[in-house]
Predict the structure.
Amino acid sequence: MDVLDLLLGSSPAIGLAAVAVTIIAGFVQGVTGLGFAAVFTPLIVLIAPQPQQVVVLSLFLGAVLSLGIAVQSRHDLRLPRCWPLLVGGVLGTPVGIAVLMVLPARMLMQSIAVLALLVAATSLVGLPGPIRREPAAVAVAGLFGGFLNGSTSLGGLPPALLVSIQRWPTADGRAALVVFNLVSYVLALVSAAVTGTAMADLVLGGLWLLPAAALGALLGTCAARRLSAAAFRMALVGIIGVSGVAGLITSLRA
């Protein structure tokens, strides 16, 4: 049974749970400009344990949301500073897709859970000072992020950490991360389509979750003006941490 059958055909409760997860993930994306996959992928894998298909669905929904945010923040993009990030993402994403094709489902589920826990743990640890050779560091972060994005759809962590370490201005960092996510998402979807990992019916079927994702993003954009950064960061860490623990337990029982 594929992921859409599990989400739509199992029971109304599962369908509503999928919609709720999508709204929450869209809310996170609307507030921060990234993070859709970090919330969506681990939680949907718990509902529908088909990690390869969940990754593709997450890439599709994340790409649509990232496109809207990228258009909104296009004037803040500083290409002379962030182009190595984009080049790294372009090179790393196809490699991640290749791994997605051959990695056993149980191992991929465990990888997704562990990555979610790493995101939460890293958010609680103090960051070092800026790296001197910034272009090289930015390129490595983009390469690693592209690989993780293609294989698990959770590639935003390395670029986000790099932007934080380098203390980029909020607007510049947000615009760079959104464009990185968009480029990685599109490349991953194209690569998955070429290799046969992404099925057209899966992507088209995923359109039923798009309104929920858009609603969450709209609510997140409105809440960003009222919610403190510290409060949201702690809420995000809690959501990702809990989903990581639950996903790890589920994969170990599989």
About this structure: Residues 3-253 form one domain. DSSP finds twelve helices and no strands in the chain. The chain has one domain: 3-253. The chain has a mean pLDDT of 78.
